[in-house]
Amino acid sequence: MVPWVVLAVLGGLVAVLVALSLWRGLSGWWLRGLAGLAVLAALAGPSFQREDRRPLSDIIVAVVDESASQDLSDRPDQSAAALERIEAEVAALPDTELRVVRLGDGPGDSGTLLMTALSEAVAEEPRARLAGAILISDGRLHDIDREPDLPAPLHLLLTGQEDDWDRRLAVLSAPAFAILDEEVLLRLRVENQGAVPAGEEGLVPLEIAIDGGEPVEFTVPTGEDLELPVTLPHGGRNVIQFRVATGEGELTDRNNEAVVQINGVRDRLRVLLVSGEPHPGERTWRNLLKSDSSVDLVHFTILRPPEKQDGVPVDELSLIAFPTRELFLDKVDEFDLIIFDRYQRRGILPALYLDNIRRYVEDGGAVLIAAGPDFATAASLYRSPLGEILPAAPTSRVIEEPFLPELTELGRRHPVTQGLTGGGAEPEWGRWLRQIELDPTGGQVAMTGMDGGPLLVLDRVGEGRVALLGSDHAWLWSRGFDGGGPQLELLRRLAHWMMKEPELDEEALDATAEGLSMTVTRRTLGDSVGDLEVTAPDGTVTTLPMEEVAPGRFQADVTGPEMGLYRLAEGDQEAVIALGPSAPREFEQTVATGAVLEEAVAARRGGIRNIADGVPDLRQVREGRPAAGRGWLGITPRGAYLTADVTTRPILPAWAWLLLAAMLSLGAWLREGRR
Questions:
Q1: Which residues cross the membrane (predicted)?
Q2: Average pLDDT, stretch 25-52?
Q3: Among 126, 131, 245, 452, which one has the highest count of C-beta atoms within 10 angstroms of its own C-beta?
């Protein structure tokens, strides 16, 4: 009826009055005290309370691990049989329910998040009703630090067999980038796990393949770190695939394979620029090549032809003697690209030197000729041994008229000229003022000039590449003449195509991956391509059509069903790509074990049982008692209930308390009056 503070103050006052009565020697002090207590009790309002309770069932949470490692061997059947038995056992228990949670692979490559799934399941249920939790798994989880605080026993039903074993190939370290023609070290390890049978230890065969090519086999030991020196064959992405032989009775071969993707970069690109008669475009080439810090440029310029006689002694024409023999005979193979800019034969470079350059191209080198009027004369490079590899012949006509460079149909598909800024059906770039008339003898015409005549001709000769630009006026674009144009973009692409950058190959199949999705791109000079064949890590083959997204460029978007190595093929083009790691986290450890969960299970008085030995019975045990024994697992009944109604009845009515206090006070007065 009143706050507890008021009751406390009144209680103190009653105590003081009783003490005063006792001090004065009043014989009824105890009756006065009882009267005060009766008043305090009336103010406190004591009552009887009755609750109408409805009992609630106990809840058991069963988490079924259905991650990738649980698909191995007979584990799916073991899990299904265990869950069926648990459902039957729970159904036989009074007032007990079962909540089943199924768990797949974690996002990305996070593995089996078993404790996360258990925590989320427990959080959705009333804590007071949790009687136990049962995990059906191989015990290979990757989030043990997320274990929940359970008020009931935790058990593990372990899949797998005692004689399970597996072999795994692990890449311990690999660089993301490497310099071409330089060795890089990869560290590998082949390890066996589980009950390895006799004969599977020791030496095993290891296959290594680059970019899906023919594999090379080696014999390596198991259980040791291996250092493998590798030299990348080309620039751009190099996919190196490793595969170790599959042993008899092995759980899976998914982790017998590993893929390393290394981007090959050139340390320094060596370019030899040979300039003839000086002209405004010479500075353009030099600026382009010098602006790239990865290019080592050697510039050879002929300023004084041999026929010019001005009386200057030969030993005073230069500070040092130019090493022509060393450059064009001894060290020509060290260059990645040789550019002839308006060069004509003047006796400086003998036919032997030029013939050596022809051989250099056929063996894999690259030559670019930017032709000026000299190309149409008798001193043309075409009339040297280089003429055997050039894709067009001069007609001896030099056109000195403005013209607009245009892309051919093939040029709109070729990576060198495809999508050049301003190069649409009606080019939006400036005109050039001079063109050397050419007669194509081979190669591919990517650009045309006056009256549709060849302007840029590209060709492959042997292992090398040749490009012929039939004008020396590309520099007009960089000066902004008539609106300018993409001169820098064109020349840079041209130089990189000749240096065999993979991104500029005419015929190529490439793929980029993000998560479990990849975009496959097919570059071609043809009008159409066939269907894309995708071979998944498990060997299944899927055929998909490819859609044209740009001239000469076809694409297909693919979503892989699982992580691993995918092989792509279209026509004679092949590629390999890894979605996620080639051996996902799920397959790092595949042999079933309860060691990871042992501490967590023991802390909650639970048990770990192998399904292969039979699924144990479920029993009810009291809280605090061991919850696992031979052939059985225990759950703790919680006795939870729901209060449906509460009835409150006072111990005495108010008038009775008043009467009791009055009688006690009167009794004290009468007792003290007799004295």
A1: 6-23, 30-48, 652-670
A2: 83
A3: 131
